[in-house]
Design brief:
Blueprint lengths: L1 H5 L4 E4 L4 E5 L1 H9 L2 H4 L3 H25 L2
Antiparallel strand pairs: 1-2
């Protein structure tokens, strides 16, 4: 959660309405490398963190999509 919120400004937008299309993963990865708690994790645990980030990303996108209708 900490990393997801730390990267909250790293969304990609599309169209005139500025619809969020997903996270900018290179930017999130760069931000993650600056978070000591993440950077010190073994690669296997970093992979689990990314799995969690993608779940949170999809959840946000689904909620925003429903709210816009």
């Amino acid at each position: 959660m900490h990393l997801f919120f730390a990267a909250a400004t790293q969304w990609n937008y599309a169209g005139m309405a500025g619809v969020r299309t997903g996270l900018n993963y290179p930017a999130v990865e760069l931000r993650a490398s600056k978070v000591p708690d993440y950077a010190s994790l073994p690669l296997a645990l970093q992979s689990l963190v990314w799995d969690g980030i993608t779940v949170m990303e999809r959840t946000c996108l689904n909620i925003w999509s429903k709210q816009s209708k």
